[in-house]
Amino acid sequence: MELRICHLYPDVLNLYGDRGNVMCLQHRLRWRGMEATVTGVSVGQPLKADDFDLFFIGGGQDFEQEVLLEDLAGGKADEIRAAVEDGKTFLAICGGYQMLGSYYKTWDGQQCDFIGALDLYTEGEQERLIGNFMFSCPELNGLNVVGFENHSGRTYLGSGVKPLGTILYGGGNNGRDKTEGARYRNVFATYSHGCLLPKNPELADLILKNALERRYGTVSLESLDDVLERNAHDSMERRLKQA
Ligand code: GLN
Q1: How far, in Å, are 63, 94, 155, 157 from residue 130 at the CA level?
Q2: Is the pTM of this model over 0.90?
Q3: How far is the centre of ligand 1, averaged over its atoms, from the C-alpha of 59 (Å)?
Q4: Has domain 2-242 been given CATH number 3.40.50.1220?
Q5: Residue 153 alpha carbon to ligand 1 centre in Å
């Protein structure tokens, strides 16, 4: 089995080591004897969504998101919308997550109309939501996901999407309704940056299983030695609980 991973805008949307999530997905496939190719597609390069099984979009600052509007309008937005509806798997983080929604209005009033692949919108506030945070995730049988957030945008979900999880510590989507991230078809979207997947190997495997099953039918993933990953997860969970 193999997965073809597309890293969208790897040179523009790559805050806090978001790229590490792509490496994590690739390694967890290879450790199980599967093939995993990673192809970067950036500004000015055409996107053919049919060539890929799994898409990763990292975070970026308001400025970078604005820079991408023109490139998205030049064909990528249509491809992404179609791929989402077609059940392709996506992991989108922070700025990349916001871009899948309908719009982002920055705290100083700049309106960015985005892809509209997911039923959600984002409005900025001057005070940022920053720090380590944690949320429960119903699809992970009660396991908590630990991560790091840093955003001005407050995201509000429409009825067409579900949250990825419920906030236990931190801000999440908007600091008000306790929701974090979004789930729609095979899209996973979250405010959690950086080493999200290395520290939450069950979430990494859920995303991989999702993409593999879309392509091959029912798949059972062999378990891996996740002692280091689990230690990293548990030490952050302990820190948050003690704070
Ligand atoms: N520019 C967005 C915000 O501040 C996204 C930031 C990010 O990706 N960290 O809300």
Answers
A1: 18, 12, 15, 20
A2: yes
A3: 6
A4: no
A5: 6
